[in-house]
Amino acid sequence: MKKKTYIYLLALVPFLLVALLYEIVPLITVVLKSFRPDGGTGFTLENYQAVFSKLIYQKAILNSLKISLTSAIAGIIIAFLGARAAHQHQGKLNNIFMTVLNMVSNFAGIPLAFAYMILLGNAGLIVSIGKEFGIDMLANYNLYTMNGMSLIYIYFQIPLSTLLLIPAFDGVQKQWKEACTLLGGTPGLFWRKVGIPVLMPSILSTFSVLFANALAAYATIYALMMDNIALLPVQIAGCFTGEVKIRAGLGGALSVVMMVIMVIMILITNALSRRFQKGGNRK
What we know:
Elements: H1 2-33, H2 46-53, H3 55-88, H4 92-104, H5 110-120, H6 125-133, H7 136-139, H8 146-165, H9 174-182, H10 187-215, H11 219-225, H12 232-241, H13 248-282
Helix pairs in contact: 1-13, 2-3, 2-13, 3-8, 3-10, 4-8, 5-11, 8-10, 9-10, 10-13, 12-13
């Protein structure tokens, strides 16, 4: 038994080494730098004071929270409907649906930004069609705003959340639906009273993943907007890639704030998930 334990521990060494070098050490470095003045030594809280006192960083935090919550909520609602349909309808069509999901879930970054520029940019195809046929909603659409960015975020949230939710539907047993029908319940009543509560821990876990995914998203937004939008990832990148001066301390403080927001959201969703699990166990 001890020999097997040593073998398992030995097999974990490469993973632990990678985690140490690429996750733990950089994390500690960022936290330490956030308490150091740029270009100096010692301990300071000036970086955090700048984060919470300057309007640009306050706006970046609020915009990141807004766009992350909006895209996560919209993505989880659409994904719920898609995952339910994929679970109920098996066969060749379902296999095609899963193939498309896996493909589009990896379509992000600069290619996604380029696609949206072609379709919904100022001279994009859909905008041009709107102008040609007098469809004001399309003709006046502005991709380069917070609302326009929200649409992009929702797009790349949907396939990820759908893939995460599909396995959870296996926990909704067919016998429960049949029992609900025999007792005179409607499908809507079943999902409100049984289906959604059973799925809620998975939904909340997926929501936290989507929130973190949106909060840290960078490549697509930067390719479209450069540094002309106030979002946490963009401001963090600007601190480390600025043409005038690298502000590692300020960038570290912004990074810590972003990590704290992620941790708070994970703790909230975990607490809610445990409450639903306890409620289900009591039943």
